[in-house]
Amino acid sequence: MGERSPNPVRDAKIALKPAAVVGARASSSSTVAGAAAASFAALTHKLDYLDAADIRKVREAYRFADEAHLGQFRASGEPYITHPIAVAGLCAEWKLDAQAIMAALMHDAMEDCGVTKIELIERFGAPTADLVDGLTKLDKLQFSTREESQAESFRKMLLAMARDVRVILIKLADRVHNMRTMDAMAPAKRTRIAGETLDIYAPIAHRLGLNQTYRELQELSFQHLRPWRHAALSKAVQKARGYRRDIVDRIQRDVEKSFVTAKLAVQVHGREKTLFSIYKKMREKHLTFAQVNDIFGFRIVVGTLDECYRALGVLHQLYKPLPGRFKDYIAIPKANGYQSLHTTLVSPLGTAVEFQIRTDGMHGVAEKGIAAHWLYKTGTGSGGPVHVQEAQRLGAMWLQSLIDIQDETHDASEFLEHVKIDLFPDAVYVFTPRSKILALPRGATPVDFAYAIHSDVGDHCVAAKVNNEPVALRTELRSGDVVEVISAPNARPNPAWLNFVRTGRARSKIRHYLKNMEQEESQDLGEKMLAQALRAEGLQLPGDSAEDAALWQQLMRWSGNRTRDELFTDIGLGRKIATIVAKKLARLLADHGAKPDALTLTMGRYASDDATPAQGMVMIDGSEGASVQLATCCRPIPGDAIVGYLGRGEAVTVHTAECSVGKRLFERDPERWMGVEWAEQPTRAFETSVALLVRNGKGVLAQVAAAVSEAEADITHIDMGNEPAAETTELQLLVSVRDRLHLAEVMRTLKRSQAVLRVSRVKP
Known about the structure:
Strand content: 5-15%
Low-confidence stretches: 1-34, 138-144, 375-387, 604-616
CATH architecture of the largest domain: Orthogonal Bundle
Number of strands: 23
Oligomer: single chain
Structural class: alpha+beta
Mean pLDDT: 77
Number of domains: 5
């Protein structure tokens, strides 16, 4: 190995000077436990499933890591190499292959010891180097904040994991060992790491079916985040263990006896709820510890799938089941591949006891999840390959969804937000009309369902049916629902969907579509605005000739934009003012010999004075989308005199010419106003506000609605205020009309109604 440049060592380690290293090594070797943990012998007995050649490779990786971490110590004072060995040991318990064990031993070598990826490829091959690279955090100097750096690290890790799931298995083993040995760290750092583990790593372990790891990470996080509550609950559970030991023993004897009578060979295991799940249940359901009655439960492991249901029958004959507490996760597995029958029975003493019934193979997947693939591949498990394939398939589906989200999202923090949304432990199981089952997070809607089928279905979704009944798109789905999505070729995502969708996939697809649409619309608008501003200088926009391309390049260097389209987008979004860019472009054109044209200048002046609808005027027809918005203060409709205000980094906001809010903005920022005009044939109806004074009485709202309907308009919202009912009531209607003439007809029709005393259009 060549000379390495000194790298900053992470704060959990202490770098020593060469002279001190010898003494430190000598003193640590005097401690038998420390020496054992730092030696390869600590790992050897766990690698008996590998062949001799693989063990030689792993030993070489150990030597490399030991040399790389020479002189580095953990905050506890142990040699740093004890950590990679412990991580490799956890991976060996999952029976991961030699490449993964080697990567586990060297997982900090690139980040902390200046080892390059090329060096690792030369010595250990590309697959192992890729695993180590996927585990390595990015250089923190590239990012402005800790949060941004952390989000980017997660993104890199999750995408590496989508390519190779071993990355996350090693990362989870790394996190488990760090959590087990965090006592020597500063309290603030302990709290931060425990919070991150609870938010991200524990849910990832659960999503991949690693329930044993999931429970341990939750428990350790709880211990560090809420030490007093953890200690109090631990004491309470120990007491309860003593009180309930007789009950648990009696139930176990009864259960075992009933299975002997039924001639069914089973293994009966008592299990205890984790402290974190007890704490969570107490918080969510506002219970005292004494009210949590399912602290103890039983797991029944049988030989075959058929025996699972026979065992259920035996238990239901022994004790009475609690209605509504039976769940069949064998017929419909959880999103992470977990399969079991769950039933809650009432014991002879009146306490509720939960039983989980599963086969050996299901038990392997339940505890090891996606890692069970390697267990069965090496022949250490039995009876489970089918369940393992299912866990693999579901895990792969989730990992693919990460790649889809990444394709739509280029901001690291946004990506992390979408992934957090997708890490819901609870799920609802719904059916397509063709009886295919889909697992979605609790609270998911028909829009989430549409995007889960395909992004095109989601983008063009207009309505939905649940159990053959039409429902609103924001309706929450329940397990067992049959969902049908109705789509239309011209439909597109609605920004309001972001308020209720629950899956990261749906959220990222909607945002991506809206961003693209906004950019295209803003680009067209920006080009029109620059052309209009340049006409006021008596000039036309340059074309695409070689000479014009050089001129555009000069303008790009001045504006700081990379492309012409980017400059147009910035103008359309109000980040740059069209008149200023036009003046600069006019000077550049003058330098190239261009002279103002009298006709163009006249057209430009007309456009700026709003005297006539000049060429280049921004026309409003209702199809502009996100780049043009109608102000909600005055709600302009076709026929109103209008003006456009270009906010900084926002869309063009259209106000009526007499709007008081618009006038105040004009006084403050006159250079940001631009000419806008209604198109001759708008493409849709527009909303405006109408105030009514009505007599109270039976059927008043019906009369108002009938009058509006008679005038062929729609009411989109009614506001009745919070005033107590009196002889008269003020109503504010939001009505959808074609133009001012149509609004006048609506108001005339309303005035003819006997219940209506006064009608007026609402103005700011």
